[in-house]
Amino acid sequence: MARYDSLLDALGDTPLVGLPRLSPADGIRLWAKLEDRNPTGSVKDRPALAMIEAAEREGALRPGCTILEPTSGNTGISLAMAAKLKGYRLVCVMPENTSAERRQLLEAYGAEIIFSPAAGGSNQAVATAKELAAQHPDWIMLYQYGNPANADAHYRATGPEILRDLPTITHFVAGLGTTGTLVGVGRYLREHKPDVQIIAAEPRYGELVYGLRNLDEGFVPELYDPDVLTGRFSVGAYDALRRTRQLLETEGIFAGISSGASLHAALAVAEKAAGAGEPADVVFVVADAGWKYLSTGAYGGTLEEAARRIDGQLWA
Amino acid sequence: MAVTVSIPTILRTHTGGEKSVEASGNTLAEVIDDLESRHSGLKARLVKDGSLHRFVNVYVNDEDVRFAGGLDAKVSDGDNVTILPAVAGGMR
């Protein structure tokens, strides 16, 4: 049954698709969890709706309320769609060095945008949002980096979907941002498959993004639980772009750049398993499709040129 | 064992502005001690109470050392060691 009462009800139950051409050896299978098949086209629809519903249950969010969120992209777009349907006002704090498509989408959904300086990336957006929250005590900041409903959405739905579709899963790979996907899915899978490997693919940006004044300004999301993870890869723009294009060329999947980073880590663990002669079923998350990145030039020209173009941007 | 260590902007005051320096050692701890012998003050920025600073991430060939033994993580000749501050990162 694929009929839903509203767009919000069409959330989740996304396809898990095999990637036979990318699998490095017999007995090693790669699978993509296509989270771009969600209402606004990204995995973030899951935590966004879960956080709103949790705040509604707690009575914090009532019709006409203003939602505030530090977000440079997908979470904002998901929140903007849900806010539009549910009658909330949304204010997003986002770094100025994000792609034009994100801004256009947020504005199309009627969200208000407050820009934070490019230097410092999302760290700065989080700091600015916290200041705004203090100035506007009646605004509701959902705060995806520390809201348990974020990880819980993945514990309750994404994890069970994956295990249902692939009971033989050995590795789960996803991008590391708020850490909600990895922590939520990881906890669920670990409870049912104690030996499962949970691998993070962390984007490595250009130097601008790491421009802190001192190390104590560093940031680790409150949701992060390193005990759930078994490995963590740092993936630069070049490798992320290379894998994004490889995914399109060999398996036909038009994914966003962060998904290329996850594929890079997935192939690394797949090759390790192949080297050890162990069978593996490796699932990685396609967090969104490529549409929002076309203006960055990610899909054309040489990889070196494309990597240079996105170097100062937040590409995942 | 010679390795190449990438230094983030925020720590380059210790390396005279160099983005990348050479070091030797069989473990990450030995590499950091070797760095300290030529780039004084670096160790105190990276290591706190016997383990890596909470907001410092170190990768050997792009793998986070916290999942490979932390300061005891093995390094081999020709490895790339990358030091980065922990930040919120990108488009969430």
From TrEMBL, chain A:
Gene Ontology MF annotations: cysteine synthase activity
EC number of this enzyme: 2.5.1.113
Catalytic activity: [CysO sulfur-carrier protein]-C-terminal-Gly-aminoethanethioate + O-phospho-L-serine + H(+) = [CysO sulfur-carrier protein]-Gly-NH-CH2-C(O)-S-L-Cys + phosphate
CDD domains per record: CBS_like
Signal peptide start-end: none
Alphabetized UniProt keyword annotations: Amino-acid biosynthesis, Cysteine biosynthesis, Pyridoxal phosphate, Transferase
Matching Pfam families: PALP
Oligomer and partners: Homodimer.
Name by which UniProt lists this protein: O-phosphoserine sulfhydrylase
Lineage of origin: Bacteria, Bacillati, Actinomycetota, Actinomycetes, Pseudonocardiales
Gene name of this polypeptide: cysK
From TrEMBL, chain B:
Family matches, as SUPFAM superfamilies: MoaD/ThiS
CDD domains (UniProt xref): Ubl_CysO_like
Alphabetized InterPro entries for the sequence: Beta-grasp_dom_sf, MoaD_arc-typ, Mopterin_synth/thiamin_S_b, Sulfur_Carrier/Prot_Modifier, ThiS/MoaD-like
Pfam short name (any one): ThiS
UniProt name for this protein: Molybdopterin synthase sulfur carrier subunit
